[in-house]
Specification:
Blueprint lengths: L1 E6 L4 H12 L2 E9 L6 H10 L4 E6 L1 H14 L11 H19 L4 E3 L8 H12 L4 E3 L1 H4 L5 H10 L8 H4 L1 E5 L2 E5 L29 E8 L2 E5 L2 E2 L2 H14 L4 E7 L5 E7 L1 H17 L2 H19 L6 H13 L5 E8 L2 E8 L7 H4 L9 H11 L1 H5 L1
Parallel strand pairs: 1-2, 1-4, 2-3, 4-5
Antiparallel strand pairs: 6-7, 7-12, 8-9, 8-13, 9-10, 11-12, 13-14
Helix pairs in contact: 1-7, 3-4, 4-5, 9-10, 11-12
Bound molecules: arginine.
The site of arginine has 11 residues, from helix 4, strand 6 and strand 7.
Length: 390
């Protein structure tokens, strides 16, 4: 029997993939990466067993995801098209890396995934597999089969006795991990419809948020968040805590019409409370400790970084080189930013750093001003010279 290792989430698409591959004569081995998704390992095992898979690997990759994928992206303040913190995009290369490793271990010739033929995820997973396991053959059932809508998949699942979970799965396609949630499909495909309040997973309706603010005091060491409200915590624990705290105040919702790598525009709604809180705090700290040129260039490099991640080019020389640059910029990104979380907004309460380049004596309009205004006159004469000549 031909062996295939399938990246399995337990959702509608991959549940149908199991059956479809079995019907094509494959022995199906499943691999589920736990990046902080909705299904517990027990649920996944149970579902896979009910689907008759030969073996299932469930790996808790949350620590590795946080440390090796999210953290570098946070250092770069990577955000795609101003609104997407790349939660799904960052997870794909990690999933693909494990898919390749397990296929090698199982001596399988094939790997499979449940990505559609229109999305970014097929590009990200296929590209990573081709880089890390060039001999492996890739099967993407959803790209090939005749089930062209979610409705027909549900129909197929019913006919084949495939266990699928209820409600939301049927309406929207949802991808969830610790860095955020992506929600698409259904009525949101019409740009005239506001997001469906019922689709949100992590964030409370703004009307149900508390009338009292919460505060998140975030301490960074060389760009790495190390403490929240005075308590030392692992990066993963910080993310989990901030998702909860931010979710309570309806922080981190975005609604984006985005440009997919395959050329089409699509609409996706995102929830990422922790990501937006951390990026905001990190940017605030950088604004205090980094010089103007580094800040400006880092912003441009961060845009490129986000595009690379979005396009699935995680395992590229450019991404790794940009990481090296980002890392060097973080040398003095040490300090504490206190944020207020209230009614869907993040505002800054205080900024502290031993490496602050902000000098009150220079900036003040008050008494102790150390800035030499006399020098300003001469500076402006020379600064404006080429423009005056023109
Ligand atoms: N648009 C996002 C991306 O390309 C998310 C894709 C998956 N979305 C989903 N709802 N399953 O990274």
């Amino acid at each position: 029997m031909k062996k295939v290792v399938l990246a399995y989430s337990g959702g509608l698409d991959t549940s149908c993939c199991v059956k479809w591959l079995q019907d094509k004569g494959f022995e199906v081995i499943c691999f589920s990466a736990d990046l902080g998704s909705e299904f517990s390992p027990q649920e996944l095992r149970k579902k896979a067993r009910a689907g008759g898979v030969a073996r299932i690997y469930v790996e808790d990759l949350r620590e590795e995801f946080a440390r090796d994928y999210i953290l570098p992206s946070l250092k770069a303040n990577a955000v795609y098209e101003s609104k997407y913190v790349l939660s799904t995009a960052l997870g794909r290369p990690l999933i693909a890396k494990y898919l390749v490793d397990i296929a090698h271990k199982e001596q399988a010739e094939y790997v499979a995934h449940g990505c559609t033929g229109k999305g970014n995820d097929q590009v990200r997973i296929d590209t990573t597999v081709k880089i890390l396991g060039p001999k492996l053959k890739i099967i993407a059932p959803v790209r090939e089969w005749e089930l062209t809508s979610r409705e027909s998949e549900i129909e197929y699942a019913r006919n084949k006795n495939i266990p699928i979970s209820a409600t939301k799965d049927k309406i929207y396609s949802i991808d969830q991990n610790i860095w955020g949630i992506s929600i698409e499909g259904g009525m949101m495909e019409d740009l005239n419809n506001a997001p469906d309040e019922a689709a949100y997973v992590l964030t409370k309706h703004i009307d149900k948020t508390p009338d009292k603010a919460d505060y998140a005091e975030l301490e960074f060491e060389q760009g790495v968040p190390v403490k929240v409200n005075g308590k030392k915590k692992k990066f993963l624990a910080i993310i989990e805590l901030l998702n909860e705290l931010g979710g309570k105040h309806c922080i981190g919702r975005t609604d984006l019409v985005e440009d997919r790598t395959v050329g089409i525009k699509s609409r996706e709604v995102y929830e990422a409370p922790a990501a937006w809180i951390l990026i905001r705090a990190h940017q605030e700290l950088e604004s205090v400790v980094l010089d103007k040129d580094t800040l400006g260039f880092k912003e441009i490099a961060g845009l490129k970084y986000a595009q690379l991640v979005y396009q699935g080019l995680w395992f590229s020389r450019l991404r790794r080189s940009l990481d090296a640059f980002m890392l060097l910029t973080q040398e003095k990104v040490t300090g504490t930013i206190k944020l207020k979380l209230y009614k869907g907004n993040i505002s800054v309460v205080s900024r502290k750093s031993q490496y602050s380049l902000y000098k009150k004596d220079l900036a003040t309009y008050g008494e102790k001003d150390q800035f030499n205004r006399e020098d300003a006159k001469g500076f402006i004469e020379i600064f404006s010279l080429p423009y005056r000549e023109r």
